[in-house]
Amino acid sequence: MKEHKGFTGQLGFILAAAGSAVGVGNLWRFPYLAAKNGGGVFLIIYLLMVFTVGFALLTTDLAIGRKTGKSAIYAYQSMNSKWKFLGIFTFFVPVIIMTYYAVIGGWILNYIKYFLTGQVTLAADDACFSNFISSNSSVYWSLAFMVLTAVIVFGGVEKGIERVSKIIMPILLIMVLGIAIFSLTLKSTTDNGDLRTGLEGLLVYLKPDFTGMTIRRFLQISLDAMSQLFFSLSVSMGIMITYGSYVKKEVDLAKSVSVIEIMDTAVAMLAGVMIIPAVYVFLGVEGMSAGPGLMFISLPKVFFQMGPAGRIIGLVFFILAAFAALTSCISVLESIVANTTEILNTKRKSTTIVLSAVYLIATAVIALGYSKFYIEVSLPNGSTGQLLDIMDYISNSFMMPLIAFLSSIFIGWVMKPEWIIDEVEYGGKKFTRKGLYIIMTKYCLPVIMFILFLISTGIFTY
Ligand code: PHE
């Protein structure tokens, strides 16, 4: 057991794990999906899923980590040597995500610069984002973000990750809350004289919109919610196994899972309150575009429209986004470092240095995917993308549902849920959702994950 390194206690662990979970996914992807999927309808489905599916997946990962004291590869191997392949497969998810996460982090840093130096008009320009990502400076910013991540991971679990999370997470929560409240006070008059208010925008977000609801559409919304959930909770990618392996035995796992779920979901929900009313007031609901477009194109326009206050709000927004991305990015690198030191039996610090060097190169390559290495590939799910989207597709749409499917078969039917439950109840702790956990792991997850896998890979269309 790794008694020498780990989180100092429950709070440090929860904030680090929540830091991994709360990332850019909460800030742009969740609000966008909610706006696209009938507001409140999506919110209700998502909430139901977090406390059933998300809860089961998160509990499984953390308990595997703590019980085995190892990262994915050796964790699965020590449970059952025939299932080592699942550990190896899981290890590759962070390996892939790490190639592009610092790139997004770098983009955020650049937008901090825009708002810090008052280049709001430039940031709000239609072509600004595409010009920027195809320029060399996007590569430099991405490398800077990678270096920042590497330095923190180099500092170690307690002195690096835990310390940074303990500072960043509370500030992030306050910032999100602050902008969300501000967003509700906004109003503007459209060209044809209509008054639009933030509170109306809030209604667009919260009110369930059942118009045109069919079973097919309902299914589609559920699938969107499900894939968002995975990404958002950082589950089925070995990261929570690694973090679990650093948790002390006296920590209450069931309670920690609840707090992490609540924090991650609260930030996602609040990001919606922060973004949707503001976009609604200044750009109308049509302003909610997909993907990075929302964060880097629509929002700068919104901040621009806010006038002088927009510069401050924009700055705060991008700083909080950088915080969110940073604590996620360190969890990805940490998981790779932990697995590698276990496989190669190397020292943590030297491993971190070597891996960081490798990822500096990878980050540069992916960042150049919009200029020098530009390619356009159609993905099996029907969209087209550049290098970054390809990596994102492989890890999120292909590997994660497959891993969740295989690991629920493994836990539900090979190891049996009791194996996990024993760990959660260790030292007489209470596991209130035990019954739910068993049903989810044995029956629901294998079926749901298999369907999600078939659909997100495009093997099955409906
Ligand atoms: N959970 C993070 C988010 O919501 C994303 C993430 C993915 C973090 C993979 C770590 C690893 O943005």
TrEMBL record:
Q: Does the keyword Hydrolase apply?
A: no
Q: Does the keyword Nucleotidyltransferase apply?
A: no
| InterPro entries tied to this protein | Na/ntran_symport, SNS_sf, YocR/YhdH-like
Task: Give the main location.
Answer: membrane
Among Pfam families, the record links this protein to: SNF
- Top-level taxon: Bacteria
The stretch of residues making up the signal peptide is none
Q: Per the UniProt record, which residue ranges are transmembrane?
A: 39-64, 85-109, 139-155, 167-186, 229-247, 259-283, 312-333, 353-373, 393-415, 436-460
Cellular location(s): Membrane
Instruction: Keywords in alphabetical order, please.
Output: Membrane, Symport, Transmembrane, Transmembrane helix, Transport
This protein's membrane topology, according to the annotation, is:
Multi-pass membrane protein
Record-stated family: Belongs to the sodium:neurotransmitter symporter (SNF) (TC 2.A.22) family.
**What name goes with this protein?**
Transporter
- In which organism is this protein found? Anaerococcus degeneri
